[in-house]
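Hi F.,

I've been meaning to write this up properly since the lab meeting, where we talked about keeping a consistent format for the predictions we share between groups. The idea is simple: the sequence comes first, exactly as it goes in, then the structure tokens exactly as they come out, then a line or two of notes. No screenshots and no reformatting. I'm using this chain as the first example so we have something concrete to point to.
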Amino acid sequence: MPKSIEESAIVMQCDIDQVAIAKDDISSGQVLKYNGILVEIKEQIKKGHRFAIKDIPEGEFIRQNGFAFGQSKGIKKGELISSSRVNDVIPETSISDFHQPSSTQYKKEYLNKTFSGYVRKNGLTGTRNYYLVVPTSMCVSETADQVVRYLESSKDVEHKYPNVDGIVAISNTEGCGCAANEQIERFLGVLKGYIRHPNVGGCLIMDLGCEQTNYEKMFSCLSDTVAENLKPIDWITVQESGGTRLAIDKAVNIISHRLAEVNNITRKPSPISELVIGTECGASDSFSGITANPVIGNAVDRIILGKGSGILSEIPEMLGTYEMLLPRFRTSEIAERFNRLIEWYINIAKKLDLTLNDNLVPENIEGGLLNNYIKSIGAVMKGGSTVIEDVLEYAEPVREKGLSIMQGPGGDLESVTGIVASGATVICFSTGKGTTTGNAICPVIKISSNNSTFNKLPEDIDFNAGSLLTEQTTINKLGAELLEIIIDVASGKETWSERWKQRQFQVWIAGKLSL
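Output, unedited:
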């Protein structure tokens, strides 16, 4: 007799789904008991891969979490859902299907929650207090790094200024050697977002002197910020300072005198309405979209129910989700703006004779993600379930409370850099295979989708959503736990990426097909 396995060995997300996901390898010939129905497994099903729990006739759309990710070529109950058995086709959704969503109903239990943050002069609240060295181009980035290395080598700085979380340089490869149009404007917008960011208490801006983003150009971009006098902002031009050595000496002297002023702020209780949560996923596996991403979405919902804000990005990982997201857009105009972001990606790929399929990397496929659509259904779960209030361009400042979608690539560093420039003060980052990256000025909370990755990377992963697969717990319970971790981190608790000084910064170049 074939061995019977219980339904606890699989994951189901919705009663109308025709597929289940194997929590572990399932051998051919095993019998699955699901909702009183027996399903005989016809072939080896690897961990994280999908199989049919009922016959799926040719031409029928295959659904997970209630949403289509492909069209069946004819799949029998118990068979593997593989790319060879699926046409990458989903139902069309029209803006004519749009209906105005109801308003978000805030909840007192979240309105009363607080964290301990740095309240700035413009009313924004930071979760960190960094001193930032901003090289305006690749030409002076190494010099900026040398300034920071010199200062951080002095233990005296750390002890004398306990309210300063660090001195950071955002070295880059931009600012010159390119067309003086959108590429320069985007780069300046990102730098401005970091300089104005509430996690930054003071800045030293360094330029070489002759690049496209020199003092004249940068000052023009920042004139309103300088006029607001939000924080101490100083400037150095290397070509006018006697060269590299003297510029470094001058920078060290300026920062040494500014640190006392930056340190002269303490954390104060602030409502979670002041938080902006950025969301990201990287090195995803088949479980990312059913554990870590929904748990992040649940926590983001709770922040928004307390009048806070969230940012969902990675537009190439939203391909095919229009049906899923349409009921959530505040207005039809916002829905159309989202559609234009998708169309931009599709059109630029066509011009370059490429497709968006490369967003699905071999490790994703090996982990059970058989096409872009199934990856997208899981990816947008990070954005929770509340109304989508706005659609932003890359690094554009957040304008509305609630959830915003930001134009941006799926690549971790470029995406997170833009999300932080838009104003995120904490990042929730899901990972299946495991990733160690952080951000220059914003704490990044790593959430694993499975127990194995959490156990393999105990000093890189901050929270394990993989327990959803093996323990008696729920997305709702884990979302509540993650909210408390977000509050702790926002109040100063160090994440693993911060401990290892993972201070990544990489701008998405305008016109580049980053996936």
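Notes:
The first strand starts at residue 4 and ends at 6.
The mean pLDDT is 92.

If this format works for you, I'll send the rest the same way.

G.
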